[in-house]
Amino acid sequence: MVAEQAVSLAASGQLPAYVYDLGALRTHAAHIQKALDFPGAPEIFYAAKANPDAPILQALAPYVAGIEVASGGELKHVRNVLPDARLAFGGPGKTDRELELALDLGVERIHVESPYELTRLAGLARRTGLEVDVLLRVNLAGDRSGVALAMGGPFGMDPELVESCRDILATAPWVRLRGIHAHLASGLSAPAMRRQSVEILEWARPWMDKAGVDQPEFNLGGGMAVDYAAPDQRFDWSAYGQEIAALARPGETLRIEPGRAVSVYAGWYVTEALDVKKAHGQWYAVLRGGTMQIRTPVTKHHNHPFVVLPSKTTTGPSMGGEPVTLVGQLCTPKDVFARQVPVERLAVGDLVALSMAGAYAWNISHHDFLMHPKPTFHYLDPDEQ
Ligand SMILES: *Cc1c(COP(=O)(O)O)cnc(C)c1O
């Protein structure tokens, strides 16, 4: 499907292109939904920052309980695309305007990052006469070795700081404490995720008991592992769903907010080889576009997975049976998609489709660097329900 699309996009001069396979996205989301569809299993909010593209959000909406947004911009956008979606609003440095917007647009939960933010939110809710439901974002000190990204430092409150929220809440009854939020790391396998969830719940339950909240909610965060070196080895949602459900106690609501592991597999960045050459003993292929359009390989320091779709009509140079480094059109040695990966053949005019481009790809990229034409966007199975 993607291969056919790639050939027709090349023929019509539309490369580079993002191709989003919405059928594959629906299938994957349905699989996750099924793995979490029993009592005690966490409900899922998709983290929009992974990929907030409107057709992606619309395709996911039937399979998730809600959407997590991390800025006023995402909040407005998601509210516009999915007017009825349940929303949670997290993220550091929320401004008064963003908090006001959250109250105006009927966000269901605000994840509070600091005592100062809670104080401002309380003042705002009082002035507007609107009640607001919050989770306090806590940042636990536990060992995060081996994870892709540890969310230490400025995110949320350490257990000492979160104590000062008790007094603020005591004087602001219109701010309802509903639970605890913790997004501690990214890149965790199902067993590692379970261990981290135990750690969160062991800390959070007594805290909520002491605060007198009887039907507490625990948002266990996102960060489910994605392996770019082994695209077929996917996070074990079935094992995860069962293990987390077994941790739940009656009356509690567990929630998760994954992004990458939900949307990453549905996206492709499709481009073509403009030049193939050998320099200092190494083969290079220069591809149309660059990492200003898919920043993922630069941020992750990885070889991005790809497939070559050979062109039948190549007239330029070619190589084969040896490793090749795929670079883009930027004037910087950092513009590398993949380093020294063996290929059977790569010739000028061949199409190269980078897989796993459905998350933290286009929307984290510095598009305007060098002012090359923007990629075009295409959707497979757009209307299927
Ligand atoms: C980025 C983020 C997520 C999603 O993380 P993934 O690694 O994409 O699953 C969830 N929650 C918070 C608070 C985040 O910052």
Write the layout of secondary structure elements.
Blueprint: H1 2-11, E1 17-21, H2 22-35, E2 43-47, H3 54-60, E3 66-69, H4 72-81, E4 86-89, H5 96-104, E5 109-112, H6 115-128, E6 132-137, E7 149-150, H7 159-163, H8 165-170, E8 175-181, E9 185-186, H9 190-210, E10 217-219, H10 237-247, E11 253-256, H11 260-263, E12 267-279, E13 282-287, H12 296-300, E14 306-309, E15 318-319, E16 322-327, E17 336-343, E18 346-347, E19 351-354, E20 376-380
Parallel strand pairs: 1-20, 2-3, 2-11, 3-4, 4-5, 5-6, 6-8, 8-10, 10-11, 13-16
Antiparallel strand pairs: 1-12, 7-9, 12-13, 12-19, 14-19, 15-18, 16-17
Helix pairs in contact: 2-3, 2-10, 5-6, 9-10
Bound molecules: pyridoxal-5'-phosphate.
Residues 47, 49-50, 68, 70, 90, 183, 186, 221-224, 257-261 line the site of pyridoxal-5'-phosphate (PLP).
**Helicity, in percent?**
25-40%
Number of domains in the coordinates? 2
The largest sheet is: 8 strands, mixed
What is the global morphology?
elongated
CATH topology of the largest domain: TIM Barrel
The Cα radius of gyration reads 23 Å
Measured distance between first and last alpha carbons = 18 Å
CATH class of the largest domain: Alpha Beta
Give the integer mean of the pLDDT values.
96
